[in-house]
Amino acid sequence: MKAIDNKELELALDALEKERGIKKEYLMEQIESALMTAYKNNYKDSDNAKVIIDRVTGETHIFSVKEIVDTVENPVTQISKEDASKINKQLNIGDTVDVEINPRNFGRIAAQTAKQVIIQKLREAERDIVFGEFNERKGEIVSGIVQKADTGVVILDLGKLEGIMPTKEQIPTEKYKVNDKVKAYVIDVVRGNKGAPQVIVSRTAGDFVKKLFEFEIPEIYEGLIEVKSVSRDPGNRCKVAVHAQNENIDPVGSCVGQKGVRIQNIINELNGEKIDVIEWNEDPSIFISSALLPAKVMAVDVNEEETSARVIVPDDQLSLAIGKAGQNARLAARLTGWKIDIKSETQFREMLANMQEEAEETEEASDESEVEVDIDTEEDNEE
Fold it and tell me: In terms of residue numbers, what domain contains 29?
């Protein structure tokens, strides 16, 4: 039966496998399923039917699976031993046999139904391939053209599908326009309406900056320098901690580049976001001190049990250490993973003085208590 032209089917499936990566065998199975659906929708007594496409010739065959019996009571599901022997002489009573049938009028309606299901399966298969392709690209940077940017959510054309950048993943200081070319970081790949894959992208993620560093600094890409942590106030400021195992490599200098060329390329991509590159150190006091740059630090007292630190800075460095609206201190805390309490030198001295005064008062109170106890003891003895 030629519900589908055999040669055209073979050529079409071969082309789809080469051009779109959809396996020919998978498509054959889906077409068989589609034809079976079309047959069941148009013919009664089709529960025991099956459709097979010859993998060599491409010919389509419809079979009725029948049980071999002595006496046929239901010709739709049963066949006599005599008739079954005409198909295969080795079959016995109780076996089943595939009897090929050629249903009349399995024409336009059935073929159209099959075609629609086939197209649907092809789309689903292609979506699965695209989903898998982009799912493997999680954690990478993609480039796209802005298609829509007027409802809060920015839609990017990534080629095979759309990238969605929610409002929270957009840098607040940036304005996106249609046809703008934008780089973004793939944070997730999900299935949207009707199973269509959607790529969720971000320009605010700390890992976006980390990936930009990999692109611009060969030493990071090659593994000679490691980006330990990133903390951001997207659009305003960013702190990046880097470390090199080789003592002969200057991690900060390598990231900044000669005359700041390397870091400037990253700043340009982030539309002017300031970047502080800091050398990571396993000693938390040194790391915290560096993280508070550009402020100068006098001393750092760490409490490892509470993962907290008290930092002392010169009086004229207090506002710089804290930063505008606490930005510098907040970014340093995120970068290091430590709670940071910043005090000026004067505040620290006052705190020490208060602590000393409280200690002296406590000591005096303790002495007075001891004197009272001694007096009471003497009076008891006299009695």
Answer: 6-132
